[in-house]
Design brief:
The protein is an alpha/beta fold. The chain contains 8 helices and 6 strands. Helices cover 49% and strands 15% of the residues. It is globular and about 65 Å long.
Length: 196
């Protein structure tokens, strides 16, 4: 697959979504988590705009931006809340690669060595593995419950709660109107085995 990175003139999901509109789905996104954050865009907003097209994620963390660049630090110890962002992506169904993007800190500032950054990546991987196991357990429980629903309800509920789709995306995938999909949701919401 070919990806376009959230960078330079398309730093956030909103800008990149406009660029990708009408472009074949083989072309996706390399989400560098720092750039949407720079633009004030939350991970939830980024996902809303380009989530289905994220094929690769760059992870890094900083303690600040200074003249001449940034000061990089261990993942999870800086301003980016890396664990929250990665956990959110996994919860939404992201199953692509996460890669550590190590960069030198601005001249004159002590950053983090590549070796220390690798250690923080391994720690993050352990934390995310626990979250992923919890998510997989939840999905199995929800899937079992979904099978008890009527066939026309299953697809809407699966798309909403397992895949984390928006109502607009559900409308496109199921060919129900948004109102029709929401009616199905309201009808079964009373008996959901989890809180929404």
């Amino acid at each position: 697959r070919v990806v376009i990175e959230t960078h330079d003139s398309v730093k956030d999901g909103a800008s990149l979504a406009r660029l990708l509109d009408g472009v074949p789905r083989q072309i996706g996104v390399l989400l560098d988590i720092i750039h949407p954050w720079d633009m004030g865009e939350s991970i939830e907003e980024t996902w809303k705009h380009i989530g289905e097209r994220i094929y690769h994620v760059h992870l890094k963390d900083i303690t600040g931006t200074v003249p001449g660049g940034r000061v990089y630090c261990a993942l999870g110890s800086g301003l980016l809340d890396v664990e929250k962002k990665a956990a959110y992506l996994l919860k939404q169904g992201y199953d692509g690669f996460f890669s550590l993007e190590w960069e030198r800190s601005a001249e004159g500032y002590e950053g983090i060595t590549l070796e220390m950054q690798m250690e923080s990546l391994l720690e993050l991987e352990e934390q995310l593995a626990d979250k992923l196991w919890q998510r997989e357990t939840e999905i199995k429980e929800v899937e079992a419950w979904i099978e008890t629903l009527k066939p026309y309800q299953r697809n809407v509920i699966r798309l909403r709660y397992i895949e984390g789709r928006t109502w607009r995306q559900i409308e496109k995938k199921t060919h129900y109107t948004k109102d029709g999909a929401m009616r199905i949701h309201r009808k079964v919401k009373k008996c959901l085995p989890f809180s929404t």
